[in-house]
Amino acid sequence: MINLGMASLRLYAGLVGCRSGSCARSLRTLSGMTVSQIDEEVAKLLELKVQLGGDEGRHQFTLKTAKGTRDYNPKQMAIREKVFNTIISCFKRHGAENIDTPVFELKETLTGKYGEDSKLIYDLKDQGGELLSLRYDLTVPFARYLAMNKVTNIKRYHIAKVYRRDNPAMTRGRYREFYQCDFDIAGQYDPMIPDAECLKIVHEILSELELGDFRIKVNDRRILDGMFAVCGVPDDKFRTICSTVDKLDKMSWEDVRSEMVKEKGLSEEAADQIGQYVSLQGGMDLAERLLQDAKMSQSKQACAGLTDMKQLFSYLQLFQVTDKVVFDLSLARGLDYYTGVIYEAILTQTGPVPVAAAQNGAGEKAEEGVSVGSVAGGGRYDGLVGMFDPKGRKVPCVGVSIGIERVFSIMEQKAEASAEKVRTTETQVMVASAQKNLLEERLRLTAELWNAGIKAEVMYKKNPKLLSQLQHCEDSGIPLVAILGEQELKDGVVKLRTVHSREEIDVSRAKLVEEIKRRTSDV
Amino acid sequence: MINLGMASLRLYAGLVGCRSGSCARSLRTLSGMTVSQIDEEVAKLLELKVQLGGDEGRHQFTLKTAKGTRDYNPKQMAIREKVFNTIISCFKRHGAENIDTPVFELKETLTGKYGEDSKLIYDLKDQGGELLSLRYDLTVPFARYLAMNKVTNIKRYHIAKVYRRDNPAMTRGRYREFYQCDFDIAGQYDPMIPDAECLKIVHEILSELELGDFRIKVNDRRILDGMFAVCGVPDDKFRTICSTVDKLDKMSWEDVRSEMVKEKGLSEEAADQIGQYVSLQGGMDLAERLLQDAKMSQSKQACAGLTDMKQLFSYLQLFQVTDKVVFDLSLARGLDYYTGVIYEAILTQTGPVPVAAAQNGAGEKAEEGVSVGSVAGGGRYDGLVGMFDPKGRKVPCVGVSIGIERVFSIMEQKAEASAEKVRTTETQVMVASAQKNLLEERLRLTAELWNAGIKAEVMYKKNPKLLSQLQHCEDSGIPLVAILGEQELKDGVVKLRTVHSREEIDVSRAKLVEEIKRRTSDV
C-alpha cells in the first residue's frame, strides 16, 4: 500500500497545470515544493515500479559482463602483468611515488571538470547518503587528493581503472572500464622541465613496449586560445570550438568546419582562418615562425605558449626524443582542465586488424597510415587543484596518461599470432607418483617444497595416472616433475624428471630443494 | 518546459485515488501503466528537481572522499605493495593463475547470492541500458566467469577491491571499499584435498605477514544444517538461524539466543540445544566424538560433514598446520552460497589500538584476548557456478579470501611506531650541480642514466642550491648523488657522493652507470 503525502497532490496539480498551458501559475506552485519532497515522490514511484515487477520482465537472465567491459583470462593477465611491469619500471626509474584513490568520488568532485564529456560519467544510485560517481579519469581525483592533503610537491604514478559511458569498440581496445597509467608532476618549477620529462616517459614506454612506430603530437592551450582569438572566435565559444577541433583525428576538416559553422554558429571566415592554422605541423622551427606570424603575434597568450614550446623542444633535444615529437596545431584535447602544454601519442602503423573489427568496420576508414588511435595523452593543468582548495591556492601540475587497453589488444594479437606459448603460472615442479596410495607422501613432500619457497603443484586425486600428471606439466609449461614411488621412499630419494628432455635422475631428499632451485633459476 | 504525457495523468489519478481509500480501483488503473511509463515519469520528476537546483542547495562543497573510503598515500602504498607481494608470492607458489573481472556486474548476477547482506550492495544509477551493481565480493564474479567461459578446472587468484554499504569503522580497518585477495580451486577432485590447501595458504600468509598469533576456525555447512535439523529448527528457518549463529563472534550467546527466539520465532528448547553444540571446539577428536553423538549421528548430512572434517584434519596434519586450526561449531558465516567446509581466520592478539578508536570506543568491548576481527575467510560452494550455467551444470569450488585492510592497518601502525623510515621511491641517484647554469648538463646526464636503466632524479630548477638537492636525498632516502661542475665536465668525470657517509669520489663518465649499479645492487 503506497502512502502519498499532500506534497504529491500539490506537485501533480502543478505538473498537470503546466501541461494544460497555465505554466506561470504552475511554476509558482512548483516552487513551493522542496527537492526532498520530489525525492520522496520519486522513491514512491520507484516502489510502485517494483510492485509492478520492476525491470524484471524486460529481459531474461543473461550470462555476460556489463556492456563495454570484459574479463581478463589468465593469458591476458600474463600479458597485462608484463605491460604493467614495463610501465611501472619506467615510472620508478623517474623517481615517482605511488598513490591510490577510491573508485568513486563525491559526484560534486567531478562536476564541471570534463566539459561536454561529463555526460559520460557513471553515477551511482542514490541509496541514501552521499551522491557518488565512478571516476572518469585519475587526474581529477589526483587534484582532489592534493588539495585535501595540502600537498604542494609530488611526483606520483597511479594505475587504476576508470569509467566512461562511451560507445565501446572492444575489438579495437575501446572499453567502458579501462586502465589508465598516470604519471604526474605537481609543484612550482621552472618552465617546461617537468613537461619535457613527461614526454620523455611516453617516449621510453612506447619504445620499450615495441608497438611499432609512434608519433607524439604537442600543442598548447594558450596557443589554441590565442589562435581562436586572432581568428575572431568569440570568447565564450573557445571551449566548444576547441571540442570541435579535437575531432580532427576522427573527422575530415570539411566536417569539422561544418560543425563549427552550422552547429556552433561560428562565422565562415573565422572557421577558414582556423583551418589554415590547424593544418600546420613542425618542430621548434614552426614555433619560431609563428612567433613572427602577423596575426598570431598579436596574442600575448599565443606568444607565451610559443615561447614555452621553443623551450620545450630544446629540452626534448637534450633528451634525444625529438625524432617522435611533432608540434601540431590541430591537437586540441577535449577536457576542460588543461591550461598549457597538451600532448597525445598515436601509433602510426596499423596493426593486424582483428577479424570482428574488419567485418563490422563498414563505416570505418581503413586508409594506409591512418592513426590507429591514441595510446597516451596529457598536458598541463595549473588551475585544477585550485578548484578544490578552499582558498583557491593553485598547485601547477603536468602529467601523462598511458591508455593501455589498446596496447593490450595489440599484445594479445601478437601472442595469438606467435607460436610461443604464454605461461600463466610460475610453477617449478609437479609432485607426482606412478604408484597408487601415495597421496599422503605426495602431500607431505609438496608441503616441504612450499615451506622452502619452491613453487609446487600436486594433483588433487588419490590415485592420479602418471600420464595425466605429466600431461598437466606439458600443458602448463611446468619444467620439472618430482616423482615418488615405494622404492624412492625407501632410498630417501626423489626421481627428478626434466619435462622437455624426459631425463630422470635420483636426487636425495635432502638436496631436492637446492637442485630444483638450481635448475629453475631462470624461471 | 516540461512535457507530461497522458500516462502521468492516469498514473497520478491512480495514486491519488489510492490515498483516498478506493485502492482496488486505483490498482486496476495502475496495472494499465507499464514500467517504462513509470520510468518516464521518474525522469521528468528528476528533471524538475534539477530545475529546482537539484541537490546543490543541500550541502556545501566538501573536500573529502566518499564515506567509508580512503586514499592511499605513498607510504601506505609502499606498505600495501609489500603485503601484496607476500600474498601473491604465496598464491604463485601454489601454482595459481590470475584473472580479473569488471568492478561492476549486471545487477541480476548478484541477486540472490548474499542472503540478508544483499541490502549492502551498491547499485549504479539507471542511466539507460543495463542495471548494474558494484561487486560485493570476488566469488560471485568468479562463478559467473566460470559458467560464462565453460571453465571446469582452474586454480586462480584475484586481487581487487569490493564494495559494501556497511557501517564503516575505518580506524579498525573496516571500509566500504576494500581489497580482497582471493584464491580458489574449481574442479571435481577427491574430497578435502583442495580444501586443505586453502587452509595451508591462510596459514602461510598469516605466518609470513608476522601479525602475531592467529587461529583458523573451521566448520561445515552440512554439520550446521544437520545440527539445526536434530535440534528441531524448521527447514525454512535454517538460513536465518544460521545468520544469527554467525553473530556469535560479536554478540554474547544470551543475545544470540534472544534473537533466535524473539525475532526469528525459534522455540526455546531448540535454541538451548543449539547453544550446547555451538559451544564445542576441538580437532579431529571432536569430529569423531560427534559422529558418535546420539542426536548428531541421526543426521546424514551432519555425518557426511563430520567424516569430511576428519579427512580434512588428516591432511592438515600432513601440512603441519593443525597448531592453528580449530573445529568450531559456532562458526556459521552469513553468505548463502556455501555448501560444505567453511573457515575464518582471526588474529588472537589485540594490536596497538589506534587513538581515535580508543577514544570513540565507548560501546566497544576491549576485553583481553577478544578477537580483533576476521582477516581471512572462505569455504566450499559447490552450487554457485550451477546457478549461472544455463543447463545448471555444477562446478565444485572451494576458496579463501584474505581481507587485507585490517592487515594494512596493523602494518601502518607498526610502521608509525617504528623508527625505520619507509622509502616511497626507489631512486638510486640524484643528478645535481653546485654551480649555476648547468641545467642542460644535468638533464643530459639524467637522460643518459635513464636510458641505461638507472633510477635517477633531477631537480626541475634552473639553478637549485646544492643544499636543497642534498636535502631532498636525505628526505627521500636516495643513496647517491652525481654532482656535475665545470671542472668535472672538463675532466669527463662526475663526483659521486654517498649520502649517508658524505664520501665523494670522481668517477669517469664512461664508468658511472656501472659504478652506480654496483653500489646500489641491494636497493
TrEMBL record, chains A, B:
<comment type="similarity">
    <text>Belongs to the class-II aminoacyl-tRNA synthetase family.</text>
</comment>
<dbReference type="InterPro" id="IPR004516">
    <property type="entry name" value="HisRS/HisZ"/>
</dbReference>
<keyword id="KW-0030">Aminoacyl-tRNA synthetase</keyword>
<dbReference type="GO" id="GO:0003723">
    <property type="term" value="F:RNA binding"/>
</dbReference>
<dbReference type="InterPro" id="IPR015807">
    <property type="entry name" value="His-tRNA-ligase"/>
</dbReference>
<protein>
    <recommendedName>
        <fullName>histidine--tRNA ligase</fullName>
        <ecNumber>6.1.1.21</ecNumber>
    </recommendedName>
</protein>
<dbReference type="GO" id="GO:0004821">
    <property type="term" value="F:histidine-tRNA ligase activity"/>
</dbReference>
<dbReference type="GO" id="GO:0005524">
    <property type="term" value="F:ATP binding"/>
</dbReference>
<keyword id="KW-0436">Ligase</keyword>
<feature type="binding site">
    <location>
        <position position="180"/>
    </location>
    <ligand>
        <name>L-histidine</name>
    </ligand>
</feature>
<dbReference type="InterPro" id="IPR045864">
    <property type="entry name" value="aa-tRNA-synth_II/BPL/LPL"/>
</dbReference>
<dbReference type="InterPro" id="IPR004154">
    <property type="entry name" value="Anticodon-bd"/>
</dbReference>
<dbReference type="GO" id="GO:0032543">
    <property type="term" value="P:mitochondrial translation"/>
</dbReference>
<dbReference type="GO" id="GO:0005739">
    <property type="term" value="C:mitochondrion"/>
</dbReference>
<dbReference type="GO" id="GO:0042802">
    <property type="term" value="F:identical protein binding"/>
</dbReference>
<keyword id="KW-0648">Protein biosynthesis</keyword>
<feature type="binding site">
    <location>
        <position position="184"/>
    </location>
    <ligand>
        <name>L-histidine</name>
    </ligand>
</feature>
<dbReference type="GO" id="GO:0005829">
    <property type="term" value="C:cytosol"/>
</dbReference>
<keyword id="KW-0547">Nucleotide-binding</keyword>
<dbReference type="InterPro" id="IPR036621">
    <property type="entry name" value="Anticodon-bd_dom_sf"/>
</dbReference>
<feature type="binding site">
    <location>
        <position position="164"/>
    </location>
    <ligand>
        <name>L-histidine</name>
    </ligand>
</feature>
<dbReference type="InterPro" id="IPR033656">
    <property type="entry name" value="HisRS_anticodon"/>
</dbReference>
<keyword id="KW-0067">ATP-binding</keyword>
<dbReference type="GO" id="GO:0006427">
    <property type="term" value="P:histidyl-tRNA aminoacylation"/>
</dbReference>
<dbReference type="InterPro" id="IPR041715">
    <property type="entry name" value="HisRS-like_core"/>
</dbReference>
<dbReference type="Pfam" id="PF03129">
    <property type="entry name" value="HGTP_anticodon"/>
</dbReference>
<feature type="binding site">
    <location>
        <begin position="337"/>
        <end position="338"/>
    </location>
    <ligand>
        <name>L-histidine</name>
    </ligand>
</feature>
<feature type="domain" description="Aminoacyl-transfer RNA synthetases class-II family profile">
    <location>
        <begin position="39"/>
        <end position="411"/>
    </location>
</feature>
<feature type="binding site">
    <location>
        <begin position="137"/>
        <end position="139"/>
    </location>
    <ligand>
        <name>L-histidine</name>
    </ligand>
</feature>
<dbReference type="Pfam" id="PF13393">
    <property type="entry name" value="tRNA-synt_His"/>
</dbReference>
<feature type="binding site">
    <location>
        <position position="333"/>
    </location>
    <ligand>
        <name>L-histidine</name>
    </ligand>
</feature>
<dbReference type="InterPro" id="IPR006195">
    <property type="entry name" value="aa-tRNA-synth_II"/>
</dbReference>
